[in-house]
Predict the structure.
Amino acid sequence: MPASKRDYYEVLGVDKNASADDIKRAYRKKAKEYHPDLHPGDKEAEEKFKEINEANEVLSDPDKRARYDQFGFEDPTQGFGGGGNPFAGGGFGGFGMDDILNSFFGGMGGMGSSARRAAGPVEGNSLRYDLKISFEEAVDGCEKSFDFYRYENCETCGGSGAKPGTQPSVCPTCKGQGQVRSSGGFMTTIRTCPTCGGTGKVVTDKCTSCGGTGRVRKRRTATVKVPAGIDDGQTIVMNGQGEPGLRGGANGDLYVTVSVRPHKLFRRDGNNLLLDFPISFTQAALGGELDIPTLHGSVKYRIPEGTQTDTEFRIKGQGVPYLRSSGKGDLLVRVRVEVPKRLTEKQRELLRQFDATTTGREYEGKKSFMDKIKDAFGG
């Protein structure tokens, strides 16, 4: 394997037993992550994107994958020319291995499979957008509008790439067939036309708006409905909102990944909300009714006499809605007993009087601890 190339399975992050669907999902994820639109001017991301596409081109094709699994990057044709990567156009007299197989299996007298794929519909690129929302918007749901960029068919030339008033001309290499044939002895090979890429047409007088590409970068506005209960890092798929496909292919999708800003009071644990609530020494000892804040106002909650610090209370139905079912999680309130600081002399005296009247039975933890000391030291 050349030192500059990584194993295709490693590039897509799948193992060698991955199914076709696994490879497809991995490719989509990687391609979205390193798509040039998300990293303008980033050469490293551009190279990774090319590497990902090259890996997918091989692993998504059963024939190419089988040969790659058998031979890796080494050319199985040995002394017949080519050398290096058998999937990159090398092989017999400069023809790719696909072209050779097409000539034997279904390529005689008709279009080869690679030519059909090149000339057929191609799905548009999917895009990703990172959407920041507040904690409350994530819990309650919301509707958000945002701007994003995508490549669309050029309005000037209608996507043809040709200057208005002109038309793409018939490809001089393949005469509009999208494929070229070559005979050598007993074998005829068929491959996608290298001049037109299988379309059968070439642009000689380019559109000035798109430079002959047939596409221009456009700013668009989308509105997404964020469901109640969505969590940080989850993604909403907006079908068909990505870039238009080629040759009648379907539009790609727009993947909106949600980033939730933290709350000053509440934390989230699944569909439950967590709250640390400070109480005084007196409230802990005597118990009483507390005003507990929630995301939608406050509620009354009575704690019992002798409540200890870090005791957790559950308030039903004050948590986060479930995404795919009805109902909500709970609010878990953990109380923290605060020991007073900077006491007055009168307060100190009252506490001394209180302590003098205790028998020890009031402190369950202390009594248990003292009993353990007696047992440990035979007291």
About this structure: Residues 287 and 303 are 5 Å apart (CA to CA). Residues 75-118 have pLDDT under 50 and may be disordered.
